[in-house]
Specification:
By secondary structure, this protein is mostly helical. The chain has 10 helices and no strands. Helix 2 packs across helix 10 and helix 5 packs antiparallel against helix 6.
Length: 250
């Protein structure tokens, strides 16, 4: 009969099989952790490590983070890409892998991580940037941060112009540009503090100032205590992210 649906089998290509294998690996990691960490903590950990595109946090958890100005912590960020590179480079260096080979392996691992996260704009942006920096290191060249950020945005928009309407894309690049332009100014305000503390204080303040208009436009809310909340919480999120990557690898 004409109204009976016909099932069409399409031969799966190599790309599909590869991405499916990556997806299965990520799901297996999350399920292994789920045996010991219950909801909503497992969704929080999964969001920090793999991003909210890979792990969907409960609505209640999302709302709590939204009202406190911490929504960005539920999504994988550029910090994750930096952690992947730092950990990979460190351990490969311990194994006395030649520097150039070390860089190439790190580039491959970063690409695999992008696949695991589902290619959210913030991770893609950070991934492209660090790949360019590593390539420059391979060819013994220097890079200009602002130029690398601009080139990353251009490449992403050439690939998918609709990224321009994506909130994650807007927030990621606005915060990155804000940090590049404003960090030195804010660091001078806290010049009497140790460098590690200056960074922990300046980054959340700069980020919140630059994302404030977008947050109010899309979410109709902005809380003044979100700056303090970010200053307090971000160091713990960094620790959680590091331990999450370590336990995922194990």
């Amino acid at each position: 009969k004409e109204d009976v649906p016909k099932i069409i089998y399409e031969k799966k290509n190599l790309k599909w099989k590869f991405l499916q294998k990556i997806n299965d690996t990520r799901e297996n990691i999350i399920e292994q952790h789920r045996k010991y960490i219950k909801s909503p903590k497992i969704e929080l950990l999964g969001g920090v490590v793999f991003g909210d595109d890979a792990v969907n946090p409960p609505e209640e958890l999302q709302q709590s983070f939204l009202y406190s100005g911490l929504t960005h912590l539920l999504a994988a960020s550029g910090l994750n890409v930096g952690l992947i590179f730092a950990l990979s480079y460190f351990f490969l260096n311990l194994l006395r892998i030649p520097v150039n080979v070390n860089f190439i392996i790190c580039m491959i691992l970063i690409l695999l991580y992008l696949c695991m996260t589902g290619f959210p704009p913030s991770i893609v942006r950070a991934g492209i940037m660090i790949e360019f920096v590593i390539l420059a290191k391979l060819f013994r060249n220097t890079t200009n941060t602002l130029s690398v950020v601009s080139l990353s945005a251009l490449l992403m928009l050439i690939y998918n112009p609709y990224y321009l309407k994506d909130i994650g894309f807007q927030l990621s690049f606005i915060v990155t540009f804000g940090l590049i332009i404003s960090t030195n100014v804010f660091i001078k305000l806290f010049e009497n503090l140790p460098d590690i503390i200056k960074g922990d204080i300046a980054a959340p303040i700069i980020s919140q100032i630059w994302v404030c208009p977008i947050q109010m436009f899309y979410f109709n809310s902005f809380t003044l205590y979100s700056i303090i909340a970010n200053i307090i919480v971000i160091p713990f999120i960094s620790i959680i992210g590091f331990l999450g990557f370590l336990s995922s690898f194990l």
